[in-house]
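Question: I have long wanted to understand how a fold can be written as tokens. Here is the record:
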Amino acid sequence: MEKGKSSIWNPWHGCHKLSAGCQHCYVYRIDGKHGKDSSVVTKTENFDLPLRRKRNGEYKIPPGNLVYTCFSSDFFVEDADEWRAEVWDMMRIRKDIDFLFITKRIDRLQTCLPGDWGDGYDNVTICCTMENQDRVDYRFPIYKAAPIKHKIIICEPLLSDIAFPFSIKEWVEQVVVGGESGREARVCDYNWVLNIREQAIKANVDFWFKQTGSRLLKDGKLFHIARQFQHSQARKAGINVTLEKGE
């Protein structure tokens, strides 16, 4: 997921809690501070951002950028069905940038795809969240069979130990793991992180320990980690794996 220059694009905002990983959603947490109802899905002012240009005619999002898409909602949330076709059109037009979004609704993929999708757009990465074994058991087979050219498994917030039911070799590009943030965060066990890492390495797949979360259990001790240190502490663990092509 970490690559070059990046931009953020949220064509719509708001979502509905769906599974265990949604319980302490950061969008709900942030909106709550401003008295905003996160369950109301609305089109944003930046809906057409990828097509907007500067006065000199250049795109506001320059070619080569990685665009983190729909991070304040779920790309496949039902409420956005009427707007999604326009977003696919923008992704098709902007073949010079890469789009990446994360979904917990991979089971809606087939009903939400554009007619020319085929086996996927070259410039679109669709990540699937699998926060515990229950969601792995349900979402993993659907995700594996889905026609997507670039796939990343997101185990965040990681809520249990996880065993992938089938190999992730050759069809997953990366596995991302992270603990849960916030005052009410549930515990992330470092042994779960290492177990997932081992499965990724065996499958020759990149692994990224993105963040520790607020409560990390390691070597029998529970660590309370402030928000500003959760990413840096994960990096200090030194367990990220980036494989060279052809390994």
User: Anything to note?
Assistant: The first strand starts at residue 6 and ends at 9. The two ends are 19 Å apart (CA to CA).
